[in-house]
Amino acid sequence: MKNNNKKLYALLALTLGILFAVVIAELMLQLLDFPPRTVSGWLNCKSKNPDQCNSMGFRSREINYSDDDFVVVLLGDSEVYASALSFEQMPERRLEHFLKKYRENVKVFTIGDMGYGQDQQYLALKKYFKKHRADLVLLMFTARNDIENNIFPASGGIDSIKPTFWLEKNGELRGPTEKWLEPADSWFKLVLLWQYYFGKQLGKSRLEIWEKDILPAPYRPLNNYQGEVDYSWQEIWTKHPQRAYKGLDIERIGPGNKFTPRSERRKYGINLTRKLFSEIKELTEANNGHFIIFKETRPWELDNNGLEKVYYLKGKYYKLSIKQYQDNLGDILDGYEHYNIPLNLEKYTKNSEDFHLSHEAIDKLMEKLSLIISKKQYFIEE
Fold first, then answer.
1. Is 168 exposed, middle or buried (0-12, 13-18, 19+ CB in 10 A)?
2. Under 8 Å CB-to-CB from 188, ≥6 apart: which residues?
3. What is the DSSP string of 57-86?
4. What CA–CA distance (Å, rounded) separates 263 from 97?
5. Residue 176 preceded by cis peptide, ω within 30
6. Burial class of residue 90, CB neighbours in 10 A (0-12, 13-18, 19+)
7. CA 296 to chain centre
8. What local confidence, expressed as pLDDT, does residue 300 receive?
9. Other CB atoms closer than 10 Å to residue 201's CB: what's the count?
10. Which long-range CB contacts under 8 A does 209-217 form with residues at least 24 apart?
11. Is the four-CA dihedral 288, 128, 120, 113 of positive or negative sign?
């Protein structure tokens, strides 16, 4: 009996010792804040343009206006952030400049950042409306990657997570996965420490879950094709096999809007994007504002509308169609007030490798957009 008691006491002492060690280790890690918790979503301005950030953390002027001002909010991604342009060349500044030709008391503010889809745009706008008003919300849609940014729960080369919405099988919108700009993983540092050294990065694990449980099948390239083939993709991949076209097989990067026929994943992305448009529109109108979507139409979008082209990459053939691209855009924007604004410029991107709009293109785009807005009855001063 005494031996049994000794064993029990020894086990109890061991258990208490382990528990004490765990508590001490957890407290030490909390004090050191290691590993840091993963924040869902991002703001780049403080690290990239620290002297050009407003109180919400966006690259934009401070949010100040009078009761008489017509307030415009410009939603978007890297195109409205415009990292390659000076502060005065930013879209918000140029739009305000052109709008003042029609009405003096106008203020334009940016809500947008690099890599933002409509999910983060919507959540940021919700935060904006808690303190501020907007007479007009303009969403600058980026056709080359907005759908992808909405579909996937992580973005960028390091798979940064963000609050993500998804569609149920019946088409209902669900989400977000967590609150915007708040930690998304465990509070316990010992759990984070295990994941840090032995587990998967949160972004990667979420991508796997989305692929397995949420997303329908992506575009499937052809195994064989008889006809004219462009081998430029293969040449680029041969030079940069570690990074070129990474994610193409799941429609995460690349010309997904041009793949034909349209995949089930592309249909899902279109429907998800439209749902997010509706959330932004309803939020804006609930706060007594008007909602408009706009995008630039680049010269290549107007050429060879029925042309199909096949590219070869690693034994597969990918068929692209400008008509499919136009059909996808039509289905995304149908039913919303939207404007496709043509850019008839020779130099409309920063350079041949950077597809962001040049300052000349931004000027032309904002000038044409301001003309559209100037004719709206709600903009015209009484």
1. exposed
2. 26
3. SSBS------TTPEEEEEEESHHHH-TTS-
4. 42
5. yes
6. buried
7. 18
8. 87
9. 16
10. 209/153, 210/151, 210/152, 210/153, 210/164, 210/166, 211/250, 214/166, 215/151, 215/265, 215/268, 216/263, 216/264, 216/265, 216/267, 216/268, 217/263, 217/264, 217/265
11. positive
pTM of the model: 0.93
Find how far residue 223's CA is from the centre of its chain: 32
Amino acid at 172: E
- Is the per-residue pLDDT at 54 higher than 70? yes
Residues in the chain: 382
SS3 assignment, position 354: coil
CB atoms near residue 213 (< 10 Å): 8
Question: pLDDT digit string (tens) for 230-252?
Answer: 999 999 999 998 888 989 999 99
Task: Please tell me whether the peptide bond between 261 and the residue prior to it is cis, using omega within 30 degrees of 0.
Answer: yes
CATH of 39-215+268-302+332-374, one of 3.40.30.10, 3.40.50.1110, 3.90.780.10, 3.30.465.10: 3.40.50.1110
According to DSSP H, which parts of 157-198 are helical?
189-197
